[in-house]
Amino acid sequence: MSREARITLLVLVAVVAGAVVAFGAPHVLSDYFVRIILLIALNAILVLALSLSNGFTGVFSLGHVGFIGAGAYISGILSIPVQQKMALLPHLPGFLHAFSLPFLPATLVAGVLTALLAVVVGYPLMRLSGYFVSVATMGFLIIVNVVLINASDFTRGARTFTGVPLETTLPWVMGWLAITVFVLARLVYSPFGRAMKAVRDDTIAASAVGIGVLRTRLIAFVIGAFFSGVGGSLYAHYLGSFSPNTFYFALTMSLITMLVLGGMGSLTGAVVGVICVSLLSEVLRSVERGFTIGDFAVPALFGASQIVLGFIFILVMIFRPKGIMGDRELTFGSTQRSATVNQTEERKR
Amino acid sequence: MTQLDYILQQIVNAVSLGSLYALVAVGLSIVFGVLKLTNFAHGDVMMVGAFGVALLVGIGVPFPVAVICGIAAAAVAGFLIERIAYRPIRDAPDVARLLTSLAVTYIIENVGILVFTSSPRNFPLPDILNTSWEMSNGAITFTSINLLTIALTFVSLLLLGWFITRTTTGLGMRAAAEDMSAAHLVGLNVNRLIIVAFIVASAYAGLAGILWAAQAGVVQPQMGFTPLLKAFVAAIIGGFGSIAGALVGGYILGALEIFIVAFLPSSVSSYRDAIVFAVLIAFLLVRPGGLLQPNREIKL
């Protein structure tokens, strides 16, 4: 089978499997398992959005959760029913009181506005490299948090933002996941994707062959922010009520753990990381409620699951710094690696 | 209360807060200078020091002894963190090490919550440190813990200055900060220097944590995170990796924060932390070497 045919087949199988899960799972599985699948798919969107700049372009952002938070609040404000808006957010500007958007347009608007925010933020920040960009984007995350807490006319401040209709169902999330995977796969395995990896592997060489470093990074950052905003909107309509601290360091840490565990240079790796971490923390969470083995009662240890995840993160960093998948993709037959990666590794030897 | 008294009071507050930031930032800078590691776990070492004192005083240990034990506990914590988490990945890229230190933070804070719960508990302070002093008929007040913070910062930084300029180990640390492999080539035991750097930095963190808790009156497992982020800003303003820079940055940040709250309307000053981190981003973009290292270049 040629490479093209193999990828087409893979996409077809993935789409069919996704559709079967999306529409079939609620009939077969209990609500608990449907919720786990939904959360895995939702987190997969968020981690994939993160992987575009952090994994493929080498700009390790700690600020994407700021975009997720922005997307959640924007789509929340847009989609609270008009009758409730007066009561919940009495100080909103008049034009926002007058209407409320359905789920899909609210999500799209959230994605687009978040992407615009990313243009403004990214234009200066994408000049930075290494840990400088991580620290600067972390500063952005903190600024978003402060603004969400203080702009109480729009966000109810530190109080819980509530009243968002619960419309995030499994087919919606699977649909958005399919779009995310499709767009990112087209992007990463295209000439532009090669430019991204070139910028990641050797900035100077990339600009020497005429790749605009700032432009490449900015495009990756903005597209990632769009899907972060979309994911934020899905998150908002899944939770129904949330507060600024829902979108802060804890979420950042869990998304980064998923990304790093799965492998930063691989789309399927990102998904594998999400699945592993989600299932593991689900198991750990039921363990930490306490259980008994024979006569021996293990008491409830709340927070223990986070500790175990933290240790796993450090062990991965020490023993397998490229994650489970590294920069390989799961495809049929042989595994795919990008040419630039091979060349870089040759040079390092 | 006259205008002048109000300004003087704010200056007292700024110097006191700036001293705390400087103490934390100095520890961050020592570690960054030697290892080029952005150590998020530094804030949790502060927490270890403060909790150590709170627990020891709780079981009847005299306060000064508890303080010394708290600082020692922080130093041991720093040593263990380096040994267990940072040494195996010493040659990894910057970002991987930054993430590891985030994970260490995450583990320590969650262990703290597991053992002590996340609700704040009282920090016991002897009465002699809890008195407040007044000047100019009560217009300017400061507590003895304010004074002690400023004095201890001054003394401990003098001590650090002596250590890094006059002792062999201190000179070795500066050599390692300048060029790790050259230091290794001329026969310095780099491993030992890094351990010393962590122990010294963590002892400073322990002292800072105790003073921070004494001013706040409470200890809590996540208490180290906010001062850590602020000290980070202070260190970068001054010049990350430079001890003098951390000092300058700490006082500038303390003054900035106090004056934002004191002299700007509350609609602006509630955005204080946003302003502080905007300053951080501005420095990273325009002058990444900070005030004291203007010539340091970072590549795109």
TrEMBL record, chain A:
This protein's UniProt keywords = Cell membrane, Membrane, Transmembrane, Transmembrane helix
Q: Where in the cell is it found?
A: Cell membrane
Q: What is its main location?
A: membrane
An example GO CC term for this entry is: plasma membrane
Any GO MF annotation of the entry? branched-chain amino acid transmembrane transporter activity
Q: How does it sit in the membrane?
A: Multi-pass membrane protein
PANTHER family the record matches? HIGH-AFFINITY BRANCHED-CHAIN AMINO ACID TRANSPORT PROTEIN BRAE, HIGH-AFFINITY BRANCHED-CHAIN AMINO ACID TRANSPORT SYSTEM PERMEASE
Q: What is this protein called?
A: Inner-membrane translocator
From TrEMBL, chain B:
Q: Which UniProt keywords apply?
A: Amino-acid transport, Cell inner membrane, Cell membrane, Membrane, Transmembrane, Transmembrane helix, Transport
* One Pfam family linked to the record: BPD_transp_2
Which positions carry the signal peptide feature in this UniProt record?
none
Topology with respect to the bilayer: Multi-pass membrane protein
User: Membrane-spanning residues where?
Assistant: 12-35, 47-77, 98-119, 139-164, 193-214, 234-262, 274-292
**Cross-referenced InterPro entries:** ABC_transp_permease (IPR001851), BCAA_transport_permease (IPR052157)
Principal place of residence: membrane
The answer to whether keyword Transport applies is yes
Please list the GO terms describing molecular function. L-isoleucine transmembrane transporter activity; L-leucine transmembrane transporter activity; L-phenylalanine transmembrane transporter activity; L-valine transmembrane transporter activity
Q: Where in the cell is it found?
A: Cell membrane
| GO BP field | D-alanine transmembrane transport; L-alanine transport; L-isoleucine import across plasma membrane
* GO (cellular component) term, any one: plasma membrane
Concerning its family, UniProt says: Belongs to the binding-protein-dependent transport system permease family. LivHM subfamily.
Protein name stated in the entry: Inner-membrane translocator
Q: Which organism is it from?
A: Mesorhizobium ciceri biovar biserrulae (strain HAMBI 2942 / LMG 23838 / WSM1271)
Which classification does the entry list for the species?
A: Bacteria, Pseudomonadati, Pseudomonadota, Alphaproteobacteria, Hyphomicrobiales
